[in-house]
Amino acid sequence: MAGFNAARPPAEGFAAYTADWPGAALPDPGGPAVELRGGRVAAPPVREPARRARPAPGTTLLLSRGATATAELAALRPGDAVAVAARPVTGAGPVPWAAVGGREALVVAGVPQDHDGEPNDTAAPRTAVGFSRDGRQVRLVAVDGRQRDSGGLTLTGLGRMMHRLGAYEALNLDGGGSTTLLAGAAGATAPTLENTPSDGTPRPVPNGLVITAPAGSGRLAGYRVEPLGGVGPDFGRVLRGLTRTLTATGHDAALGPAPGAPSWSAAGGGSVDPAGVFHALRPGSATAYARRAGVEGALPLDVLGPPVRLRPTRDRIGLAERGESAGFGLVGYDAQGAAAAVEPRDVTLRFDRSRWNVTSDGRGGFTVSARTARATGMLRATVNATGASAELALGVGLEALPVAALEDAERWTGPGAAAAEGRAGRGLALSVPAPAPAPLPGSAAYAAPPRPVPLPELARSVSLWVAGDSSGARPDVRLADAGGAALTLRGPAVDWTGWRRITLPLPPLPERPLTLTGLSASGARGRLVLDAVAAETPPTGPAPAYRTRPDPVVAGAAGVRARPWRFAVGPAVPASARNPDADFVFTGAMERPAFTHRGVRFLPLDTGRATLDGGGLGRMRSLRAALAAAAREPGTGALAVVRQYAPRAVDRKEAALLTRYLGEFRRTTGKRAAVITVGAPRFTAGRSEGVLEVSARRGVRTLFGADAFAVGDWLSVRPG
């Protein structure tokens, strides 16, 4: 045999599957199969078996692949004796009592392995396990990937990470969409998903690695107190005048579940009612307590200012059909740009109730469902306490929006591509040669458009017309997400002649908007003609436009000159000019070290290296050092981070961490902070977590006036 209860049947030889197979269904057989019962063939071989459930006890399913094995299996007849035996095979030593399999060694005898140039050494979601030299510590690592803010790791990079974490031996396990990490919080009765799988949801896989702990006593020893739905930077924040639902989960000394409802109290800037709802009364720190019979749990809370701005977590919601639902949340911002969730009880919603149902989802957000098969509309949410409001567009039903009519097929270029007669006008022909090697991995004919073609942001699927020749060749649609990651939609094997419309669903997770980067054909030799690429999309209409007032730091020339001193961002000036209006100029080169000038510590950050290539780690180290220096220097009143515009190098998680560190610096020291981005496509100015954020437009000169110890804002900016 070449495989026994294997996750993937082998390319050549026999594979057997028994009731010990752990999945609900067997993998795709991909070849003939025969059922064995009691050591004998139970029925004639099936030439192309469908995917089927796990064999019943006492039944073995024997699959074959390759000419030799398939011929032997085809010769079997009902009643023939076939014995299947399996045992662990080890190179030396005793049979292990537990084992886990992987494809590549990451660390061997304390040495990270170099996988550069190997086919699997690409940035992807990864799962790895590693052991310390004495075998007493295990590291389990899950790395998200194929997402805009989580690019994944190469095998070489993963090995280096495992080595840094103390692994003396480490192994790469199943990755990609299979990378999943579940963990049980204190008092929880079931584990929760901790990572973001690249498929959008956890993928069904045949096995997993599980760590368990002994059951506890069940006697209450503490409470885990959390805000409902609180995650990320918003965790433990409440806007003044609003509320936050708190939960208290009882646990025993072993962190297992323990019953017992608590009583609630609070200290600081708010109060908690008997239902566990915190009411924010005044800005500052607060603590909520859950207590019962001498057992206590506590949650520190940060009461922000009142909400002056409201935004939904989604600008548009598109539903495919009546009865389908989708969720959204509301985020409020105080005057300093600090954010916190806004719960349903604190807002009033206005929408067409004859077309939509909008209800609380029980987790601090909302659920929208459609009452009709096709409609568009708008939902408006208003904060009861301050009147801050926001809108989001709604739509239900699908319409095919044209993406590429292919009337310009002669301008689509690539091997095996040519213009042809389409279904109605011009079409694109893709000819798959044989046995010539594929010009691109997994394809033998490919055509790229003159320029990337955008897809509607809420598209659910891509459709196109295909004229087939019964060759078995497969049409593919190639896309790129908002972060540039490639995505391929694979069509069916063309077993028909003439025109047929095919529809390829879009996976939920890739970062929108998507762009069409090419069409290809793969597999068997043949000639396909493609026409009329469209995207099935709910008709929501455009997202609401948000108008915000210019930030107070934006000033004219007089306002900038009124500051004690000035600096500039933009192109270098001739040496003869010597910047008469500024003490110095940032031109975009960020190699210079941190320095202090007239009460402001400047930290130039080099954004040349991507976050996951180590650039983010180096930048965070520099930031922490600069924050520590600025905090202890009595003559320093502000820290300004200056960086080059590089959205593809600095991912969103790093950007959020930068803002978080600067916000904490501002709150704990009382000093000021700003982030200045050089060479952005357009000028912007605002603030987040009380941190000023200014993006200076490329190619023009932006002038800053500074006073690190001013009352109120310490910067004034004159855009170029």
Q: Which features would summarize this protein structure in a list?
A:
globular, 6-stranded antiparallel sheet, 38% strand, 5 helices, 6-stranded mixed sheet, single chain, 720 residues, mainly beta
Strand content: 35-45%
Average pLDDT metric: 90
Shape: globular
Unreliable stretches, pLDDT < 50, 5 or more residues?
435-443
Number of strands: 51
The share of residues in helices is under 10%
| Tally of alpha and pi helices | 5
Counting helices, strands and paired strands, the structural category is: mainly beta
- Termini separation (Å)? 72 Å
- Largest beta sheet, briefly? 6 strands, antiparallel
Rg: 31 Å
Q: How do the strands and helices of this protein lay out in sequence?
A:
Elements: E1 3-4, E2 13-17, E3 33-37, E4 40-41, E5 59-65, H1 67-74, E6 104-108, E7 111-112, E8 126-131, E9 138-143, H2 155-164, E10 169-172, E11 182-183, E12 192-193, E13 222-227, E14 237-239, E15 243-251, E16 263-268, E17 270-272, E18 277-280, E19 284-292, E20 295-304, E21 309-312, E22 316-319, E23 325-328, E24 330-333, E25 339-342, E26 347-350, E27 356-360, E28 366-370, E29 375-383, E30 389-396, E31 399-404, E32 417-421, E33 426-432, E34 445-447, E35 453-454, E36 461-469, E37 474-480, E38 486-490, E39 497-505, E40 515-522, E41 526-537, H3 557-561, E42 565-569, E43 585-586, E44 595-597, E45 600-605, H4 615-632, E46 638-644, H5 652-669, E47 672-680, E48 684-688, E49 691-697, E50 702-706, E51 715-718
Helix pairs in contact: 4-5
